[in-house]
Amino acid sequence: MQIRSYTTKKAAQNLLSSWLQGKFTASRGGDQWDGYYEDISVTPTPHRRREDMEVVAITITLPD
């Protein structure tokens, strides 16, 4: 299990929504004729399901 922490619940929910869409891949490059290009694609990941996920509140206490 991997724990990721965010300062607000909304931030955690936004990241979860993005993660559930799939794997994001970016291709960037350029040449002397067409200039710069950037292509972002999303590969669906069917095993990522919202019903299997949950956002929970935690409290992190650091030692003095």
Mean pLDDT: 89
| Number of continuous helical runs | 1
Shape: elongated
**H/E element sequence:** HEE
Helix content class: 10-25%
- Flag low-confidence runs: none
Radius of gyration (Å): 18 Å
Please give the alpha-carbon distance between the first and last residues.
Answer: 27 Å
Oligomer: single chain
Percent of residues in β-strands: 25-35%
> What structural class do the secondary elements suggest?
alpha+beta
Q: How is the main sheet built?
A: 2 strands, antiparallel
Count of domain modules: 1
In order across it, which strands form the biggest sheet? 1-2
Number of strands: 2
What does this structure look like?
The protein contains one helix and two strands. The protein is elongated and about 55 Å long. The protein has one domain (1-64). The protein has 64 residues and is of the alpha+beta class. It has a two-stranded antiparallel ribbon with strand order 1-2. The mean pLDDT is 89. A hairpin with a 3-residue loop joins strand 1 (23-31) and strand 2 (35-43).
Secondary structure elements and their pairing?
Elements: H1 9-21, E1 23-31, E2 35-43
In short:
The chain has one helix spanning 9-21; strands at 23-31, 35-43. The protein is of the alpha+beta class and 64 residues long. The protein is elongated and about 55 Å long.
